[in-house]
Write a structure and sequence with these properties.
Elements: H1 13-31, E1 53-55, H2 57-65, H3 69-83, E2 91-97, E3 100-105, H4 107-120, E4 133-138, H5 149-167, E5 171-178, H6 183-198, H7 217-227, H8 236-261, E6 268-271, H9 272-277, H10 280-290, E7 294-297, E8 300-303, E9 314-317, H11 325-339, E10 342-347, H12 353-364, E11 371-375, E12 379-383, E13 386-387, H13 400-417, E14 425-428, H14 429-433, H15 440-457, H16 460-468, H17 478-488, H18 490-499, H19 504-523, H20 531-555
Parallel strand pairs: 4-5, 4-10, 5-6, 10-11, 12-14
Antiparallel strand pairs: 1-3, 2-3, 7-8, 8-9, 12-13
Helix pairs in contact: 1-3, 2-3, 4-17, 4-20, 5-13, 5-18, 6-7, 6-8, 10-11, 15-19, 15-20, 16-20, 17-19, 17-20, 18-19, 19-20
């Protein structure tokens, strides 16, 4: 085993760990001959004072060689020090502690990370295309009103996950389902018609189950202006579909404008009604019938959902021939899974029952294990200590556009993703407007802008040299190493966010990077008189700026040059 470190080709953390694993395998063979093969794996210690990485390989060996993990770890470290002196250039510390072997990398390894980031820029850590196609649906709202904040949260979660998956090499196709085939469209049509009639007759009754929000009044006014009183005496069968269609189209157009303002463009806006009209609902149901996964009872067609883990069988087609929502889910997911290797749905609150149901549908259609479901939980809006009350049914709503008007896209996107999707979120509008370090998105963006300010004060030759990243050997201060180590975590952090469907980890990472940079800025004078040190620190600034810009880009948040 050999690994050479030069100024031109410093050892990377990955290379150093690979060298350690190989050396440890040889040390095991020497000190414990005949022991079973043990894989040497690494993880970050719980406490930073224990080092950069640790391995529990001694625990795996202890039982086989009949001694304590600490004795095994001590013996292995002694063998490594005696037989593998090349590790001294890679590791500042190799220590046996409580059965673990704790490792602290040499500064050259972290310097290599800075060099790589400066070289690759915002593409640092990107994975090549892996050939996996992912259908990601999120934000989908009933076309019965403007988008509200919980739908905005689903959009933030979904789009952040989509961009993180693209970073990891996935081919992501984002979708919105327009739920325009249910009874809510009839209710919408009746609500708009009532507003239309009330313009000439204020006493005209509003439907008890209608949508009372003022947002329907302009739609009714547009119909009155364009078509006059032609519908005043008409029967419901004559005007219902007309009013429902105009209202749906107007509201969906508004929803599209809102999500585009929010920085999101969907590849497909799928109409549920179109699935019916194109025969895809019937085709999806037929696939289940042909597979023997349905039965009839009292005139209705049931899906054998209990065969796929559901608590009861579900109606696909009612006794009067009308398909249920489940039939639409079957058709839509059959459509998605035929053109994708994986489908992910981000659903709203109170949809936990859909998780097993949708996974069961996928299995029944022959695509077991290829559907994942996320839940975007409710949001409590606050202004400082005061809660903002909202009720769509009562007509008192704070729309997503209202929030964007008040705090902007950046703060809204960041705050909506900060907490795990399946946890309720408290969103303080007052905090989101603050220009202080208490506001997490301001704190992160200020880190990026602060770096720009540093470069503005540096000379042009120094900036050019720093962006080449060729002089990094002086980066040894603890704050410099801590920042470089944090920057190195970007690829792994994004992969973990994707693997665990946990985009909130990216906001925490962005804050950690900003915190480490601000600490470095405080402890290490950047524009020092020592040119070599100055260039190295400017290179570290450039690497930090690239990482901050990329993680903010994934989060859908701007990276300002000044604040």
């Amino acid at each position: 085993m050999s690994l050479t470190i030069t100024e031109e080709q410093p050892a990377s953390p990955e290379g150093a760990l690979a060298a350690f694993a190989e050396a440890t395998a040889q040390a095991i063979a020497t000190r414990f001959p005949g022991s079973p093969p043990i894989e040497v794996t690494f993880e970050a210690p719980r406490r930073p004072e224990f080092g950069d990485f640790s391995t529990n390989v001694a625990f795996g060996l202890a039982r086989a060689v009949r001694t304590s993990p600490q004795n095994v770890a001590t013996a292995l470290v002694a063998e490594l020090r005696a037989s593998h002196p090349q590790l001294h250039a890679l590791f500042r510390e190799i220590e046996p502690t409580a059965g673990f072997i704790n490792l602290r990398l040499a500064p050259a390894c972290w310097q290599s990370v800075v060099a790589r980031i400066v070289r690759e820029g915002k593409r640092f850590g990107e994975s090549p295309k892996n050939g996996t196609r992912v259908s990601l649906e999120f934000g989908s709202a009933n076309p019965t009103g403007p988008l509200v904040i919980v739908q905005g949260r689903a959009c933030s979660i979904g789009e952040t996950l989509a961009d993180a998956m693209r970073y990891c090499g996935y081919d992501v196709f984002v979708e919105w389902i327009i739920n325009d085939a249910g009874s809510q469209l009839d209710t919408l049509g009746r609500s708009v018609y009532a507003r239309y009639r009330q313009m000439n007759d204020p006493n005209y009754p509003f439907p008890e189950d209608g949508y009372p929000g003022d947002y329907l009044v302009p739609i009714a006014r547009a119909i009155r202006d364009a078509e006059g009183d032609r519908w005043d005496g008409a029967s419901e069968s004559q005007w219902l579909a007309h009013f429902a269609a105009i209202a749906r189209d107007t509201l969906v157009a508004g929803q599209r404008r809102t999500v585009e303002r929010f920085g999101i463009r969907f590849d497909l806006w799928q109409s549920e009604r179109a699935l019916h009209e194109e025969g895809k609902i019937a085709a999806g149901v037929r696939r289940l019938v042909d597979a023997g996964l349905t039965y009839e009872r009292e005139g209705a067609l049931y899906f054998k959902a209990t065969a796929f883990g559901d608590d009861k069988d579900r109606v696909l087609v009612r006794g009067d021939g009308r398909p249920t929502y489940l039939a639409s889910d079957v058709a839509y997911h059959y459509e998605k899974l035929q053109r994708s290797d994986r489908a992910i749905d981000v659903l709203g609150p109170d949809h936990h029952g859909y998780i097993g149901r949708l996974k069961g549908i996928a299995a029944a259609l022959g695509y077991a294990g290829r559907v994942d479901v996320m839940i975007a939980q409710q949001i409590t809006l606050m202004r400082g200590a005061e809660q903002v009350s909202m009720s769509k049914r009562a007509g008192h709503i704070l729309t997503l556009d209202d929030v964007l008007d008040e705090v902007g896209v950046d703060a809204t996107r960041f705050f909506f993703v900060m907490i795990a999707p399946d946890s309720p979120l408290t969103f303080d509008l007052a905090l989101a407007r603050e220009k202080s370090n208490d506001n997490p998105v301001y704190y992160v963006q200020y880190g990026h802008a602060r770096i720009t300010s540093v470069f503005d004060k540096a000379t042009a030759p120094d900036v050019d040299a720093a962006r080449a990243g060729t002089s990094l050997s002086t980066l040894e201060h603890p704050a410099e190493i801590a920042l470089a180590r944090r920057l190195a975590e970007l690829p792994k952090t994004v992969r973990n966010a994707v693997d665990h469907l946990a985009p909130h980890r990216l906001t925490r990472y962005a804050r950690d990077v900003a915190s480490d940079f601000h600490q470095f800025y405080t402890e290490c004078k950047i524009l020092t008189g020592d040119r070599e040190r100055r260039l190295a620190r400017l290179s570290l600034c450039q690497a930090t700026k690239d990482v901050l810009a990329r993680v903010l880009e994934i989060l859908g948040v701007s990276a300002p040059e000044s604040m």
